[in-house]
Amino acid sequence: MSVPSSRLPSRSGTPSIRDMVHEVMKHFRHEKESEAHQIFRQQVGHQPKGVIPQTVNPDEETVPGIEHPGSTGVIYCSDRAMANGFSYADSHEWANLGQGAPEVGPIPNALPRPDSIPMPVDSLEYAPTTGVKELREAVAHLYNHTYRQGKASQYTYENVCIVPGGRSGLSRVAAVVSDVYCSYQIPDYTAYDQVLSAFKRLVPVPTVLDPKNKYRLDIEQTKRDIQTQGIAVIIASNPRNPTGQVIAGKNLKELVGLSKEGTTIILDEFYSWYIYPEHDRDFGKSISSAVYVDDVNTDSVVIIDGLTKNWRLPGWRVCWVIGPKNLITALSQSGSFLDGGANHPMQLAAIPLLDPIHVAQEKLALQKHFKAKRDHVLKRLHDLHLDVDIPPQATFYIWLNLEKLPPPLNNGLTFFEELLKEKTIVIPGIFFDINPAHRRNLFNSPCHHFVRLSFGPPLEDLDKGLDAIEKVVKAARKEGTRKFGHGYRKSLEAAPAHI
């Protein structure tokens, strides 16, 4: 029987200490045995919380009363990339498949990109904390035109609050939620972890989505949870980040219907245009829970969206929350002490971009362009024998299972660290395990063997990152895994440690 080369000693005779150490490393079962996992835990805010006896790390918490909430996946990965030489000034030298942002330049058949912003004198004043009325009216009109034609109940500006980014909208909503049980799913958007940690009145109740069911939200189980656990709030992204799946049709209608039974439904709909149909006739369609809301002021459905993803303008920081009038007045109050409101000139510049004719052309161009990029990435992964278990129907993310790779590359954190050596950034799956107390052994996370790849960047950046993935994977298959799992830089100045 042949012996894999990675298991042979470095020379004839008794295996060296180095060989034995690397043999152990191939069979990591706990985060304490992994260099990549230890680097993660050493980051401020990433230690397990709620452990008894409670202690304070003097290296982390040097200001009395201040506690680090932990970083989102993108921030942690950017920090680790900087420790390996990444800088935004020279970002073109790297392939950033981690940042949850679409390419912002021209794409085929789309309208010209904005290149100037008018600044009338009045726009130099503060804007209202709920936003400029004309922009709020434009948002309401767009939703009525797209999703609510023929319905008696229509959104008005009073159902719209303009916010400086999606996380700001989420924070405003969380700040006005009372002491309730909040249901969330695993995996889902990384910022929910920090929100559920920071806003203590939200008691988190997790539901792990089953990959065998294509990460579908089980509506019947959700109904039972509401009845047996007293769930008052459900928060979810739709389309789903990071899996690229979507709640649609009957399932979305039933989810919205729960709002009529005393449960508030908060839906992050930032990827509502990123839908990839099978047939050409279906291009140009988008998805929103707004289509199933009966009464805009009594159905407790909260929609968060904005210019960031669909309009491909992440730097503008102009987003919105849509919901009952009573919610909007509460968000005005929370916004007054949380963020003070969105940028006034940018709000004015956004108004013409919400014209339904403008939106229809942008949506169609976006869907065709991003579907082509999705198919390109899936084909390249297929050629590497890294087929995606559940290909994305929406968003611009691929939820890649690494379990078929040899250890230690078969976990997201180690795979991520190895790609940093090749100037490529991805997001380890554990960041989508919404685990507010950070108690779980990372190896036990249902997201541990995954990474999220973004096909948001331009095609040449995608190929640069896929070339790096190909290099790492082929090296592991051809040469063994001895050189993987160690030697990671902790800072730009520090030399990598070698075992």
What general form does the structure show? globular
Roughly how much helix do the residues carry, as a percent range? Answer: 25-40%
Give me the secondary-structure category. Answer: alpha/beta
Placed side by side, the strands forming the largest sheet appear as 2-8-7-6-5-3-4
Main sheet specs:
7 strands, mixed
Terminal Cα separation, in Å?
30 Å
Task: Count the E strands.
Answer: 12
- H and E string: HHHEHEHEHEHEHEEEHHHEHEEEH
Account of the 3D structure:
The chain is 32% helix and 11% strand. It contains 13 helices and twelve strands. The strands form three sheets. It has a seven-stranded mixed sheet with strand order 2-8-7-6-5-3-4, with helices on both faces. Strands 9-12-11 form a three-stranded antiparallel sheet. Helix 5 crosses helix 9. It is globular, with a radius of gyration of 24 Å.
Summed up:
The protein is α/β, with parallel strands linked by helices and about 500 residues long. Helices cover about 30% and strands about 10% of the residues. The chain has helices at about 15-25, 35-40, 75-85, 135-145, 165-175, 190-200, 220-230, 250-255, 325-340, 345-350, 355-385, 410-420, 460-480, and strands at about 95, 160-165, 180-185, 200-210, 230-235, 265-270, 300-305, 320, 395-400, 425, 425-430, 450-455.
Topology diagram in text:
Elements: H1 17-25, H2 35-42, H3 73-83, E1 95-96, H4 133-147, E2 160-163, H5 166-176, E3 180-186, H6 191-198, E4 202-208, H7 219-229, E5 231-237, H8 249-257, E6 264-268, E7 301-306, E8 319-322, H9 325-338, H10 344-350, H11 356-383, E9 397-401, H12 412-420, E10 424-425, E11 427-428, E12 450-454, H13 459-479
Parallel strand pairs: 1-10, 3-4, 3-5, 5-6, 6-7
Antiparallel strand pairs: 2-8, 7-8, 9-12, 11-12
